[in-house]
Amino acid sequence: MDSSVERAVIVTGAGKGLGAAFARALASEGAAVLVNNRLRKGQPDSAGAVADAIRAQGGRAITNYQDIAAPGAAQALVKAALDAFGRIDAIVFNAGIIGPAAKLPDMDMAALGEVLNTNFLAQVALAQAALPHLLQSPAGRMVFVSSSAGLHGVRGRIPYAASKGALNAMALTLADELKRTPIRVNVLCPYASTPMTSQDGVAGDPRLDPAYAAGMAAYLASEACSVNGQIFLAGGRRYRRARMVEGRGASAPDDSTAWVAEHLDQIASMDGAREFPGAESAFADLYASIDITSTGG
């Protein structure tokens, strides 16, 4: 254990691409970083290379080769960070897989399960294992790395989009559950040219260098982060916030489908759309606008 560590961060999937950029950015801000990336037989030690680069710049880093989807990986990751640094102040949940491209008729259910296990269930397991230790930090932070696919869907990638949508919903729920603690939970949907998004023979867009999304990740994992339960997008040093909103809607005088069809434009209008801090408040708002005076029977 290094008793001089003032802030320790776990970054999963940090051997290359976005995760490596996040790990380097955090180290440059003074954090001690656990660089996690699974080590495949015959492949270079990418996590080791990132950790070496951080140490060469005077930073602190250790490597970890757990496959986050493996049984017991969450507990092993937490133990490794505690053994090395004596504390866990933040986690950047970056590791994930995209899975094979396929539309619904050709989708393999085993592949669906693998994507959901890695991109959602493994993230929940790590959050659960680390939570008691994050609560001991004066500024615990969870940064769930998601995708705009989880906001808008993406053609031919049902498993990936579903897994990221589930991750978003879980993170927002967790943020609400922990809002009275020092922990802040947020979501980052980055755009970047990475090995996971690259196409054979096609050069990556230099404007989408992973480093250009790392500033937001480092901020959300930092003690300075003051926001909670938010979704941010980042790419090319361009940042913006995303949120689910609901329109004002309209009240029908009866149960007629003809009325719905006639007033669909008013129902679907997003003029005056609002966001809500949770499902309870969204329901309460709709319930307050109900003007049915008798339920009949």
Automatic annotation (TrEMBL):
<feature type="domain" description="Ketoreductase">
    <location>
        <begin position="7"/>
        <end position="199"/>
    </location>
</feature>
<dbReference type="InterPro" id="IPR057326">
    <property type="entry name" value="KR_dom"/>
</dbReference>
<keyword id="KW-0560">Oxidoreductase</keyword>
<dbReference type="Pfam" id="PF00106">
    <property type="entry name" value="adh_short"/>
</dbReference>
<dbReference type="InterPro" id="IPR002347">
    <property type="entry name" value="SDR_fam"/>
</dbReference>
<comment type="similarity">
    <text>Belongs to the short-chain dehydrogenases/reductases (SDR) family.</text>
</comment>
<dbReference type="InterPro" id="IPR051687">
    <property type="entry name" value="Peroxisomal_Beta-Oxidation"/>
</dbReference>
<protein>
    <submittedName>
        <fullName>NAD(P)-dependent dehydrogenase (Short-subunit alcohol dehydrogenase family)</fullName>
    </submittedName>
</protein>
<dbReference type="InterPro" id="IPR020904">
    <property type="entry name" value="Sc_DH/Rdtase_CS"/>
</dbReference>
<dbReference type="GO" id="GO:0016491">
    <property type="term" value="F:oxidoreductase activity"/>
</dbReference>
<dbReference type="InterPro" id="IPR036291">
    <property type="entry name" value="NAD(P)-bd_dom_sf"/>
</dbReference>
